[in-house]
Design goal:
Layout lengths: L1 E5 L3 H13 L4 E6 L7 H6 L4 E5 L7 H8 L6 E6 L4 H9 L4 E4 L4 H29 L3 H4 L8 H11 L8 H13 L7 H10 L7 H29 L4 H10 L2 H12 L13 H13 L1
Parallel strand pairs: 1-2, 1-3, 3-4, 4-5
Helix pairs in contact: 7-8, 7-13, 8-9, 8-13, 9-10, 10-11, 10-12
Amino acid sequence: MNILLIDDDEAIRMMLQDIIEDYNLGEVVASLPSAAELTNSLLALHHVDILIIDMLMPGIDGIAAVSQIKKDFAGKIIMLSQVESKDLVGKAYEQGVNYYITKPLNRNEIVSIIRNVSEHLRLESFAQNLQSSLASLTPQAMAAPAPAPSPAQKGTAMLQELGIANAPGAQDLLDIINYLTRHPGMNPSLKQLFTNVASERPATSDAAREAKAMEQRLRRTIYQAHVHLATLGAVDYTNPRFEEYAPIYFDYSDIRNTMRLIENDEKPSLSQVHINTKKFIFALYDAITR
């Protein structure tokens, strides 16, 4: 992935570049102290896939700069800011920003989001290439139906929609869905389900211990999905992803409580959220297998 950095703070740009290089997240093709030079021509020249830009800078601010290039920019935009104002965050999303990171920057959050964005871009590229390939087929070839996506492909896409494609428990969720798909009609206890899935992993020597670790990873991952959807709802209550997924995967009262915290510029914590792991897993299973 080709990444362009724009921030008037050189220390921030150097920190981002170090993280990107340390975790092999892509190549920083340019690092600018101002958005004054940001144009679609510049983005095209460097073949930029991901633009990481600060919100508040001297001269032209990040939101104004994004509004000028977004229409003709096919990549993804990550905005940085010390501001947590709901109105400004909403304005940033309205202008085409895909993700929003609050300063001070957190290394793990940066890595997770850039990986998430990169995966999204790869999926989009795959879909576009597939569409182009289908369009080039003869009418006779096109008569053959395209193969349905596998549960693994649908699962990865769904985790992407929920903002947890690169979360610690993402692979656990995919393995659980795979297990349930191979054993239709089962409704085991979570402990038994986790133990069964863990025991199928070749490297597992202690299934009970791995099941316990899996449970903790899943709680953190489901919490991440909860906060992701609550943030979408706090910014825009009519967001299609929020409207579709929030009531399926979580209790409305829990989501609403987290939204209030976000609206009041407070950060929710895992201890404040009721995580119904079984509801989440079987809602995900139904969404993938239907």
